[in-house]
Amino acid sequence: MRSLSVVGLGPAGAGAAAAASRLGVKPVIYEAMEKPGLKPCGRGLPIVDGGLPVSIPRDSILRRIRGARMYVDGEFLFEMKGFLDGYIVDKTVMLEAIAVEAGGEIHYRAKYKPGSSTVRLPGGGEARVEQGVFAGGHPYYGGAKIAAVQWIMKTGPRSDPVGDMLEIHFDTELLGYAYIFPKEEGFIEVGIGGFATPRELRERLESFIHKRSDLRELERVKLEGARIAIGGLDLGVVDGLVKAGEAAGFVLPLTGEGIRPSLISGYEAASALIEGGSPLEKLRSLPIARAVSMQKRILDLVAGMSVEERRSLLKSLTPRAHAEIALGMFRKHILLKELARSPRALSLLGLVTRLI
Ligand SMILES: Cc1cc2nc3c(=O)[nH]c(=O)nc-3n(C[C@H](O)[C@H](O)[C@H](O)COP(=O)(O)OP(=O)(O)OC[C@H]3O[C@@H](n4cnc5c(N)ncnc54)[C@H](O)[C@@H]3O)c2cc1C
């Protein structure tokens, strides 16, 4: 194989391009928009054991994150420090740098027409797309999705409400959470995602902001939102191209974290295609695929609980157990030890703990 087609330059497309380059194959990338990584996103990228198959370009790092403050239904739970680390990244800068570093032939404003195996090129004409990775994101995902909306706000010279921490506010009725993420200096993102319509989410977000004296006076820059695939894996092909990233369900259903799972799945799908293995088998057997499936089981379980049971579960988990589940690590020796400290959580999670 001399070249590999990649449709979409989100995290999954960038991962596929990096793998192709590492294996001596030229990635040819078709991205519908004028820049990569434009999907609205909190841009949080945790540092996790096992890491990423590509290094994060230095100049794409906007902030270092050193933990999170957790709340449930307005009540402070705890501060998670020491085992939740990561970055807030400029996705556009990060993805473009990875694709350029991979020596990719990048076509922007080049939209793939599903069913036609062709891409319409911006200067006129079409390119034929045959063997490759399909990384077009959530519109091509066949499972359940939720919505998320966020305000980008300017903190200006005022003190930053979060600093180098994230704020996560679980909402047990919504089965979702509101969040405050720092961005580049002087800006924050305040968002919410969960099982409600975009309109209801906007109303809940408004009320969340209104209750906070440190948020309600801030200048609002932009309201944005998108869907998130939370229904677990949806492996398959689009016109013979192997789906990766959010199109294939590589998003952690409890947290909505999709950058890391998408990057890894794009990388592995491309590697398998080039090396001649079965890409679908490879994707199915990845640790991140197991993490998606485990979180999906927990989400289904929690969806069947009463609001009181959900609250009780969230409150009884230790900070370390929260991190272990949220990051999709599910390391047996850590999780079982942590759950032994919270019998209530152990009984509520029941069957799921037997699968760990
Ligand atoms: C509000 C919100 C906040 C989020 N916050 C976080 C977060 O903090 N951390 C995190 O890890 N995840 C977060 N996510 C999830 C994360 O953004 C996605 O899961 C991730 O971007 C998916 O990567 P992807 O490459 O599969 O798809 P995308 O990032 O959606 O990229 C797909 C690309 O394909 C292009 N494309 C689509 N169709 C075509 C076509 N026909 N032809 C050519 N190109 C096409 C698109 O223009 C796009 O650039 C958030 C999501 C939302 C909605």
TrEMBL record:
<dbReference type="InterPro" id="IPR036188">
    <property type="entry name" value="FAD/NAD-bd_sf"/>
</dbReference>
<protein>
    <recommendedName>
        <fullName>Dehydrogenase</fullName>
    </recommendedName>
</protein>
<dbReference type="InterPro" id="IPR050407">
    <property type="entry name" value="Geranylgeranyl_reductase"/>
</dbReference>
